[in-house]
Amino acid sequence: MLEKALQGNKAYWGWIATLLVVIGIGFGFYVYQLQQGLGVTGLNRDVSWGLYIGQLTYMVGIAASAVMLVLPYYLHDHKAFGKLVIFGEFLAVSAVVVCLLFVVVDLGQPQRLMNVILYPTPNSVLFWDMVVLNGYLFLNIIIGWSVLHAVKKGVRPASWVKVLIYVSIPWAVSIHTVTAFLYAGLPGRYFWHDSLLAASFLSGAFAAGPALLLLILMIVQKVSDLKIPKEAIQTMTKIITYAWAINLFMVLLKIFSAYYSQYPAKMAAFDYMFGGYGGEQLMPWMWNFVFLGVVSLALLVIPATRNNPVTMTIALIMVFVAGWIDKGLTLVIGGFIPNPFKVHTEYWPTIPEVFISIGVYAVGLLILTVLYKVALAVQRESAS
């Protein structure tokens, strides 16, 4: 079926060429990082995780969000999601590949990855993060490809595929839970040491992921013959609304528990992020998060704006960007600054980090484009 990705018009090949150019630029900066070491990044002794790990965290959530289509369709027979589930699963595949690539670039020297494989340490959360991410990747590749093959043949997927689909539902929850444990399991990092962190990760993911998927599907609908059922859009926007409301509620809980209990270390993190105490680089981002989060929630809660295509699209973009600010940028930096000794050591991504990250995202978009091209072609042939 992959041969279907080799057929396309000028716009398709222009998009592919653009992505390859961006990947090439990102790879060039990665080679520079390999030669010079992680010193070309903004990372330092006090802030040892930065933009790369932030993107890993955010994209794990995007990958996990596929369950928001899989679960209603396979467990509750929500037929409106029928033709869209495959796109959610392929989004998960590309998102997990992006996650793994961010791990590789963050290690500095890729051969260090072999340490996790050659010397497995089951008592390490990082080991289990590798297991669940790779397992989820293979699950979605096998499920997505098998379902697509069945569609092409005009038959129902094999029964063993359905077993894998049921396995993938809790597995999706596990990948973001384990990622949250990487943070929450560090007692010296007070900002992350929170029993609700995994729940916060999942609620944010189940809003930002479907928001991104719906935005992508709306673009695909513009450039292809894909038709998104109105009922599917309405259901997805309701899922996004509830998940986003829960996510913002959890942010308020964190702020309340920090200041009501006068927890010094947690207050210091919020003072730094919202008040600019010790450094002002994150402050505009945090207030933008508040603005985007509140306005998008208002647009999604009100039925008239949620069902209006223009305001709904604006709300989805806001949710996606606010989610990225929250989990992809400020979570990691805010957890390191100030350090346990109340020292503020600023971190900001350098140009190589930014271009390497853009290159990694371009790889994900290339994989997503190819998979969607194949899926659309198979669905078109099946319908004819």
**Rg over C-alpha atoms, rounded to the nearest angstrom:** 21 Å
Spell out the helices and strands N to C: HHHHHHHHHHHHHH
The termini sit apart by 17 Å
Overall structural class, as computed from helix and strand content, comes to mainly alpha
Q: How many helical stretches?
A: 14
Biggest pleated sheet: none
Number of strands: 0
Shape: globular
Q: Uncertain runs with pLDDT below 50, 5 residues or more?
A: none
Percent of residues in β-strands: under 5%
Oligomer description: single chain
Q: If you average the pLDDT, what whole number results? A: 90
- Assign a percent range to the helix content: over 70%
Written description of the protein model:
This protein has 384 residues and is mostly helical. Helices cover 75% and strands 0% of the residues. It has helices at 10-36, 51-64, 67-76, 85-107, 113-118, 125-153, 159-184, 197-223, 230-260, 264-275, 283-301, 303-306, 309-336, 351-383.
